[in-house]
Amino acid sequence: MRKAVAHLKKADPVMARIIRQVGPYRIEYSPPDYSTIARCIVYQQLSGKAAARIYRRLEAALPGRRVTPEAVLETNDEKLRELGLSRQKIAYLKDFARAVAAGEIDLDALRRAPDEEVMRALTSRKGIGPWTVHMYLIFALRRPDVLPVGDLGIRVAVQRAYGFDELPAPAEVERVGRPWRPYASAASWYLWRSLGDGAGLDPVVD
Q1: What residue ranges of the chain are covered by domains with CATH 1.10.340.30?
Q2: Confidence (pTM)
Q3: How far is the C-alpha of 121 from the C-alpha of 114, rounded, in Å?
Q4: CA dist 163 → 90, 157, 167, 168 (Å)
Q5: Quick check: is 95 catalytic?
Q6: Average model confidence (pLDDT) for the chain?
Q7: What is the DSSP string of 71-102?
Q8: Given 77, 106, 151, 165, which residue is catalytic?
Q9: Which residues lie below 8 Å from residue 16, measured CB to CB, with a gap of 6+?
Q10: Is residue 202 predicted with pLDDT exceeding 70?
Q11: What is the CATH number assigned to the segment(s) 2-27+146-194?
């Protein structure tokens, strides 16, 4: 990732300052499987701390602490409700689990697919929108040039770093982020880290 960081420093003086403040690039990746999509669904509309608690409960409730399509489908809805999941999120988790188990969504094939194809395939399922796919592309598929323009944390970080009076619209974030290409994923990570503990931000609704 040294090439990405060097590009960001050279292309954008504001990003260069953020990089100096945050320090080395230390992104943590997730497995490119059902569990990462499930985690993203759990995190929708919740603070990070609340979502993390619920996801830990979900892991603990499943055999071997593995969040798989089969394990989720075999768990009745009432038990999932007791873990803190809403009925809507349970429906999303099970719909996606059925699609993966039936081969309608081939996550292995998506590892090699272009970003646009991954977006089309995953957003075809209920409850999975651009934010979830952007998180999957960055943290599971390790794609280098993803900019989640609708993410609240990204927008707040851009507002603070670039001096916007109001929260910038996604189109403004895209405009500011043009110099970051083709390493927008690294820029996104630095923007999130620039918020410190996240400032209590919730992810956007997918």
Answers
A1: 34-139
A2: 0.91
A3: 11
A4: 40, 10, 10, 10
A5: no
A6: 94
A7: HHHTS-HHHHHHTT--HHHHHHHHHHHHHHHT
A8: 151
A9: 8, 9, 10
A10: no
A11: 1.10.1670.40
**Which residues make up the CATH 1.10.1670.40 domain(s) of the chain?**
2-27+146-194
Contact by Cβ (8 Å): 179, 158: no
Stronger pLDDT, 60 or 48, i.e. the higher one? 60
Sign of CA dihedral 169, 179, 36, 126: positive
**Domain 34-139 is found in CATH 1.10.10.410:** no
Reported as a pLDDT band with limits 50, 70 and 90, residue 197 is low
Instruction: Please tell me the distance from the alpha carbon of residue 196 to that of residue 186, in angstroms, as a whole number.
Output: 16
**Per-residue tokens: 110:** 């998506």
For residue 160, give the 3-state DSSP assignment: helix
- The per-residue DSSP string of 20-55 comes to HHH-S-------SSHHHHHHHHHHTTS-HHHHHHHH
pLDDT digits (tens, 9 = 90+) for 112-149: 999 999 999 999 999 999 999 999 999 999 999 999 99
- Note whether 146 and 188 are within 8 A (CB): yes
- Can you tell me the distance from the alpha carbon of 16 to that of 166, in angstroms, rounded to the nearest whole number? 23
CB 15 within 8 Å of CB 190: yes
Task: Report which residue type is found at 122.
Answer: L
12 has a pLDDT exceeding 90: yes
